[in-house]
Amino acid sequence: MTSNGNAKQVKVLVLGSGPAGYAAALYAARAELQPVVLTGMQLGGQAALTYTIENYPGFPEGVGGAQLGELFQKQAEYFGAVTEFASASAVDLSQRPFKVESDNGDYLADSLIVGTGASPNHLGISGEVELTGRGVSYCATCDGWFFKDKKVVVVGGGDSALEEGLFITRYASSVTIIHRREEFRASPILQHRAKEHPKVNFILNTIVTEVIGTDKLESLKLKNVQTGVETLFETDGLFIFIGHTPNTQMFQGQLEMTDLGYISVNDRMETNIAGVFAAGEAADPHFRQVVTSAGMGAAAAIQATRFLEASTAPVGESK
Ligand code: NAP
Fold it and tell me: Which residues line ligand 1 (CB under 6 A)?
């Protein structure tokens, strides 16, 4: 990293410190490109908030999400990656080097790897924002402990809802999973575990329409989507796991994206701008696994290395 006026000049700037970001940093570091990783708000990304990851190869008994994140970081830094605890706030991709503004100053990057991940979706109902942190949560690993011997509701029917719901059974007296349909999206193994668990109950074909409480969550208003019948359900906790939105707003108007905001990449992780690559959940609406994000990160860094080697390439379209 060198200094150019007030801006730090880097060969490879990686945005995001999740599996995609640190896998990219590892590969770029081993190519002796001294990558700099801007961590973003959540060091380790969403994976670091997961209690146990059982499907990342190489860990037959599973590995803690935070622990795996630390190992990713340590390995990348061992080969020369630099971690900066900062979040990017604006990018200018109109010319190389690309300019990235952050709360740690400006960077000029010869190549950029976007691994900014995704953030949890909200239900968007009355009371949800007001009671977040007072009974409403989006992170079981962070907040599950607060619900020791309490009644908890989990909303969602995907892997996250069932996996995190099962995790909360360590603390809560009961976990009621409320899902808007009859069928679950979650993998059969998680469905089986949840259905067999003595503390887990299900309310199906039902949505939460209101979060009720003054100082803290007291109850939820539920609506059966088949009958239209509304009921009140008393609970101490509400955990919402209804999918994610990619953290790509900063790149709107510069990088091509899908309608849902995922950055469009080709099979080499190249975006529409030569020298800018994207990996992980910011660019992946399909798989969103730790292993696939890490794979995308590695691929992006390999391609960034080739790009820099060839690098009299003009700025502009790469596809
Ligand atoms: P997801 O698979 O998109 O599931 C979201 C769930 O929330 C769906 O069941 C959906 O219902 C429901 N939902 C969406 N909007 C809703 C709303 N407004 N009100 C009520 N319910 C709503 O998201 P995810 O569970 O976070 O998983 C994301 C990805 O990560 C997936 O690819 C998953 O396989 C992966 N993941 C894997 C693991 C693992 O392998 N152990 C763990 C966690 C996540 P519908 O089904 O009706 O659409």
Answer: 55, 123, 155-161, 163, 180-181, 185, 207, 241-244, 288
Calculate how far, in angstroms, residue 285's C-alpha sits from the geometric centre of ligand 1.
11
34: left (phi over 0), alpha (psi -120 to 50) or beta: left
CA–centroid distance, residue 58 to ligand 1 (Å): 25
Element of type H or E holding 202: strand 200-203
CA distances to 133, 152, 238, 262, 286 from 209, rounded to whole Å, are 19, 17, 13, 28, 28
Q: Which of the following is catalytic: 103, 110, 142, 159?
A: 142
**Secondary structure of 29-42 in the HEC alphabet?**
HHCCCCCEEECCCC
- Above 60 in pLDDT, residue 83? yes
CB 238 within 8 A of CB 137: yes
Q: How many residues does the chain have?
A: 319
Would the pLDDT of 315 be above 70? no
d(CA 101, CA 153): 40
- 95-151 pLDDT, tens digit per residue, is 999 999 999 999 999 999 999 999 999 999 999 999 998 999 998 988 899 999 999
Other beta carbons within 10 angstroms of residue 106's beta carbon come to 15
Query: Helix, strand, or coil here: 164?
Result: helix
Q: Is 103 a catalytic residue?
A: no
- To the query of whether residue 142 is one of the catalytic residues in this protein, the response is yes
Question: In the structure encoding, which two tokens stand for residue 115, read together?
Answer: 């691994």
Catalytic (active site) residue 139: yes
How many of the other CB atoms lie within 10 Å of CB of 267? 7
**What is the pTM assigned to this prediction?**
0.83
Q: Whose CA is nearest to atom 36 of ligand 1?
A: 159
